[in-house]
Write a structure and sequence with these properties.
alpha/beta; inorganic pyrophosphatase (n-terminal core); Diaminopimelate Epimerase, Chain A, domain 1; binds manganese (II) ion
């Protein structure tokens, strides 16, 4: 609803005493944001609770204070007895304590009360502010929201986030999609609080939590969302004693044995054919390595997409429900995998897309996908280059909800370099000497 700036957000926080902080999916940015804020506000003598539906994944348990995250929102202690007064008006009310019980005596003015006029409940939590951090959509809060809808309905909510798709679901929204991480938004806020408070608020633990968010969401400063501001904030946090090596080690360099075994299987099955790299994961692979489907997360981006001279990367996964899901990436310049996924009944973006195939064996699904991709690629190669350049400019992906934002933000920022590369491509094919400026001017005229 209301968009607020950093200072208004700070005012709202300063005025609250009993604060509930809810991180979304437990990743380094949401957990880092929630726990950094918790630690800082506790230093300011506020009562703070952090609660999340999902438990903290093992690889993030090195972060300070993760054991303080509650899996449920503590209910208020008050026991509320409600009497429906639609049928009779209350004249007066008294209570008597009698051998271990309390009798509440309600005398009506006229009419009478019945048993079915009575109901009981625990009071809905005792908070004067909820802060949702790194949450694009309230639905991400899962059962926490379902089980406490009264609390969420009746308590002001401050939404601090950086997802471009943020639904602005808060009473107040401090949302900035230009920053790389929610902790990048929080750091200057906390520095300002520190100035006003007069005592140190960012200690080594808080600095570590804040830096964990930036490192997670920038892929350790590799994604193009790594702006000069992100570096500046990170430098400040390092100066405050953030434990960068510890973060990198746990978030990027630690894989479970089961994950490594699964990666090994996928590597041993890799095939390379005509600018296409592919591999697959069957249910048997998961069973025999003890890995979970989630453990296959980084495979396509960290492993397969690094192969040189590849236009399309394909990973097929056999799902429990009999589906075969396919993930596609386009590490090169030529292919638009959203188009390929479209031919297979799926969709997505130019650089990353997916599809699902039903009622086929892995071999059949692979045959279908391979034929579709090689037909697509041979067609693409025969096209005229200027068209390609034009398409590339028009088909920048739109923002979609959820975790893909990062990729898209990334990609939008890459569009300039893509344009440049396309122009160079075009120029080479043309065989004429032109400057990039000439070609750009010409393209813009068309
Ligand atoms: Mn984030």
């Amino acid at each position: 609803m209301t968009q607020v700036d950093q200072y208004q957000a700070l005012e709202i926080i300063k005025n609250a005493q009993k604060i509930l902080i809810t991180p979304s999916d437990p990743d380094g940015d949401s957990i880092g944001s929630a726990l950094a804020l918790m630690s800082v506000l506790k230093k300011m003598d506020k009562k703070v609770t952090v609660a999340a539906s999902n438990s903290v994944p093992d690889y993030l348990k090195f972060l300070p204070f993760t054991n303080q995250i509650k899996s449920e929102i503590p209910k208020g202690k008050d026991f509320v007895i409600s009497l429906n007064t639609q049928g009779a008006e209350v004249d007066h009310l008294k209570y008597e304590v009698e051998s271990g019980k309390i009798n509440i005596i309600v005398t009506p003015k006229g009419g009478e009360f019945h048993g079915h006029d009575l109901s009981f409940q625990k009071s809905s939590g005792d908070f004067d502010l909820i802060i949702a951090v790194d949450t694009g959509d309230l639905v991400q809060l899962g059962k926490l929201l379902d089980e406490n809808d009264e609390l969420f309905k009746n308590t002001p909510l401050l939404n601090i986030d950086h997802h471009a798709s943020n639904g602005k679901f808060g009473t107040f929204n401090y949302v900035d999609s230009k920053v790389a991480a929610t902790t990048q938004l929080l750091t200057p806020m906390i520095l300002q609080l520190e100035k006003e408070h007069g005592e140190e608020l960012i200690d080594e633990d808080v600095a570590t939590l804040l830096l964990a968010g930036i490192i997670t969401d920038t892929g350790s400063f590799q994604h193009t969302n790594t702006s000069p501001e992100a570096f500046e904030v990170a430098a400040d946090l390092l100066e405050r004693g953030a434990r960068q090596q510890e973060i990198i080690k746990h978030i990027f360099k630690t894989k479970s044995l089961a994950t490594l075994k699964l990666w090994g299987r996928v590597l041993s099955k890799i095939k390379f054919e005509n600018q296409l790299v592919y591999s697959s994961i069957t249910q048997k692979d998961l069973e025999e390595t003890g890995a979970l489907s989630e453990d296959s997360g980084g495979i396509i981006d960290e492993l397969l997409s690094n192969a040189p001279n590849v236009e399309v990367v394909l990973l097929l996964k056999e799902k429990e429900n009999g589906f075969i899901s396919g993930s596609l990436r386009a590490p090169g310049e030529k292919a638009d995998v959203a188009e390929i996924a479209g031919l297979l009944g799926g969709g997505g973006h130019k650089k990353a897309a997916g599809f699902r195939i039903r009622n086929k064996t892995m071999d059949e699904a692979l045959q279908l996908a391979k034929t579709t991709i090689s037909d697509y690629l041979s067609q693409k190669t025969s096209q005229v280059f200027p068209n390609l350049v034009g398409q590339r400019q028009d088909s920048l992906p739109k923002v979609s909800p959820g975790g893909e934002d990062l990729l898209l933000e990334d990609f939008r920022k890459k569009s300039d370099s893509i344009e440049e590369k396309s122009v160079k491509f075009f120029q080479d094919a043309d065989g004429q000497e032109k400057t990039v400026g000439d070609v750009l001017a010409q393209l813009r005229q068309d």
